[in-house]
Write a structure and sequence with these properties.
alpha/beta, Rossmann fold, three-stranded antiparallel sheet, globular, single chain, 343 residues
Length: 343
């Protein structure tokens, strides 16, 4: 079990957490060569529909394009595809992907994935299974034929199981009308959740997919899986009680940790975009950066996060209450951070 090594205490503002926990773990390169990548591919009838109104192709055409790029990116790994519609189908190769047909049932997938992963796993020194699958990727428009609650619970359970056996989870929501919330349940709050609607989305999504395949994660005390950055640090939010229970060293805020803290708060809020309070977040940002003595750094962070919230606000207005809203606002925010990665 990893023990958190330090924390930063911020004043509690409204309903936001008051502490940033900072852990460190040596981030050894994730071995991909010789491992398997499992793709759970939606082949239901809706995947044969056009992905957008620009006539750029069907959802399935886009899915095949992405899978082909993944295979080319990892030529020394084995990419296996499990298509599903009303039930899971046997594993196939890229050239065997069938035409879309049938309805969409997510609930039968988990037992089949457990069988596949356990068949291709090995015992570790703790007597438990370690999966030979580096990554499990869900590609779907996320729209179920079965009861939505049953479908969502099944997708979430599927993602939880995959992470427990050591396979990274990545979801790719396909289409302008995709249920991005359903797909994001597979990856959890901090996983790699991509949203592909147009041709221009493919390359950024592929970049996220490759990062998701290579990324190492650590499971922290509350059960969540947190990505480890190249520096070896991982960051997450906590209440004061958890800080006192699990951490032993208090750090002083820096430019980098304040940026991480604000970003994590915003990412948490993006999980419920219809309930986001942009005004409160803006006040929170200004109060939090006040810890910095350097005025230039304060203004830089205020400008960056304020601008990103404007983009998020416009995206929320655009997608309103559609199923795509969660993935759309996450993608909009990620685009901001990606274009300003130097901050």
């Amino acid at each position: 079990m990893i023990t958190e090594t330090s924390y930063i205490k911020f004043p509690k503002y409204n309903f936001y957490p008051s502490n940033l926990l900072v852990g460190f773990k040596t981030n050894e390169p994730r071995i991909v060569i010789g491992k398997n990548i499992l793709i759970i591919l939606d082949i239901t009838g809706s995947m044969g529909e056009m992905i957008n109104n620009n006539n750029e192709g069907t959802k399935m055409k886009f899915a095949k394009n992405i899978i082909d790029k993944i295979i080319n990116a990892y030529p020394f790994s084995i990419v296996k595809i499990m298509p599903f519609n009303d039930k899971p189908n046997p594993l196939i190769s890229f050239n065997e992907i069938p035409e879309p047909s049938g309805c969409t049932n997510f609930s039968p997938i988990l037992p089949e994935v457990i069988k596949i992963i356990n068949t291709n796993s090995e015992h570790n020194s703790f007597g438990t299974y370690t999966s030979n699958y580096t990554t499990t990727i869900l590609i779907s428009d996320g729209i179920p034929s079965e009861d939505k609650t049953i479908a969502h619970n099944s997708i979430q359970s599927l993602g939880s199981y995959c992470r427990e056996v050591g396979t990274n989870t990545i979801s790719i929501a396909i289409g302008t009308g995709a249920d991005g919330y359903a797909c994001s349940l597979f990856t959890g709050n901090r996983g790699y959740n991509c949203f592909v609607k147009y041709n221009k989305d493919i390359e950024p999504a592929l970049s996220d997919i490759i990062n998701g395949i290579k990324c190492n994660y650590v499971q922290v005390s509350d059960g969540n899986w947190i990505p480890i950055e190249e520096s070896g640090n991982y960051y997450y939010l906590s209440s004061e009680f958890e800080t006192l229970s699990f951490s032993n060293q208090q750090l002083q805020p820096t430019y980098e940790t304040i940026r991480k803290y604000i970003s994590l708060i915003i990412q948490n809020e993006l999980c419920n975009p219809d309930q986001m309070n942009i005004e409160n977040l803006t006040k929170f940002i200004k109060e939090t950066v006040s810890f910095l003595q350097n005025e230039k750094e304060r203004n830089e962070l205020i400008e960056f996060f304020t601008n990103s919230l404007v983009i998020v606000k416009n995206t929320i207005k655009q997608f309103n209450t559609t199923p795509s809203i969660t993935s759309a606002v996450k993608q909009a925010y990620q685009s901001c951070t990606r274009s300003a990665s130097g901050i």
